Amino acid sequence: MLAVAVEKKNAERAKIMLREKGVLLQGYGAKNDEKHVYFPVAKHVILPFPHSYKQKTFPKKPLGAQSLKAQGLSSFDIVGDIAVLEDRGGGDVKKAAAVLLKTNPRIKTVLLKTGGRTGEFRVQQVKWLAGARRTKTTHRESGCAFEVDLAKAYFSPRLSNERLRVLSKVKNGETVLVPFAGVGPYAILIAKNKKCRVIAIEKNKDAVAFMRRNAAANRVAVEIVQGDAGIILPRYKADRIIMPLPHGAFDFLDAALKAAKDGCVIHYYSIGERNNPFEKPLREIMQACERRKRRFRILEKKVLLSYSAGRERVVIDFLVRNIIGVIRR
Ligand SMILES: C[S@@+](CC[C@H](N)C(=O)[O-])C[C@H]1O[C@@H](n2cnc3c(N)ncnc32)[C@H](O)[C@@H]1O
């Protein structure tokens, strides 16, 4: 089978582009080696980053996922023992839920997304479809367990690799601030694996209650503060600040810069246009640093996930310095 190989950092973008060009073969899983991800494709196409072609065999996807596709249901997430279906094609959702329950013994409940993540707390709108009637579950990821009620607090299993990437940057001894902490996936993962002071800030009371329980269940010490990150951030001085609020983190950049020590690293999540995904977040970083008279240096830029047609979820890691001078990018 014809396969296109791309570097891991470009895999998500490649998948979206191959799908858009209509050449990605359905029903097969992608393959990885240390540096590359391989996608099965119908023909050669040109991508705007390094890629090459070779012949490979690909594993068939499990029956559940394939038959969901056949019914017009494009994707689903699994959080703990709950599957959350997305209906983009007007398929038979009840039938799809039954297929999921039957083919995946791990799944006990199937929910349907009934809208986007709404409001300040970014909670997913869902309705029950099949299986046990509940929205609460415990999700296991990277050696941690996170209890969450999907109807009351944000949680996305799609960011697990990104959380591991951030963890790999954290050094023992750092003070790490996590505003927009949700039920604690970044804060608890870091507290469990590094000797750090970890402070998690979250406004949603329900998410805070789960985060407290999750910290206890994972036997980690996280300082959990309930309230508005804009007010609470400047009370601390941090070596690292993780800002997982892609829709609105720019409103909190000044507060984060007040909390940033000289040499602090900020992980800044945002949403950018597909044709130039970093332009908007870079501008926001530059403007905030100019306002706060801080120097910055970009350490890493990454496209994480497709957000919607034409838009991508991205992260930019940048280092903050005290003295204003030449702004390096
Ligand atoms: C996109 S979610 C990310 C949650 C978590 N970090 C994760 O990855 O699962 C953003 C979180 O920020 C919280 N939030 C929104 N505005 C806030 C504010 N002003 N101060 C503190 N938390 C806020 C929401 O309640 C939500 O839990």
In short:
The chain is of the alpha/beta class and 329 residues long. 26% of the residues lie in helices and 36% in strands.
Give the topology, please:
Elements: E1 2-7, H1 11-20, E2 31-32, E3 36-40, E4 51-55, H2 63-70, E5 75-79, E6 82-86, H3 93-103, E7 109-118, E8 123-131, E9 136-141, E10 144-149, H4 160-169, E11 175-179, H5 185-193, E12 197-202, H6 205-217, E13 223-226, H7 229-232, E14 238-243, H8 253-259, E15 260-273, H9 279-291, E16 295-308, E17 311-321
Parallel strand pairs: 6-7, 11-12, 11-14, 12-13, 14-15
Antiparallel strand pairs: 1-3, 1-4, 2-3, 5-6, 7-8, 9-10, 15-17, 16-17
Helix pairs in contact: 2-3, 4-5
The structure holds S-adenosylmethionine (SAM).
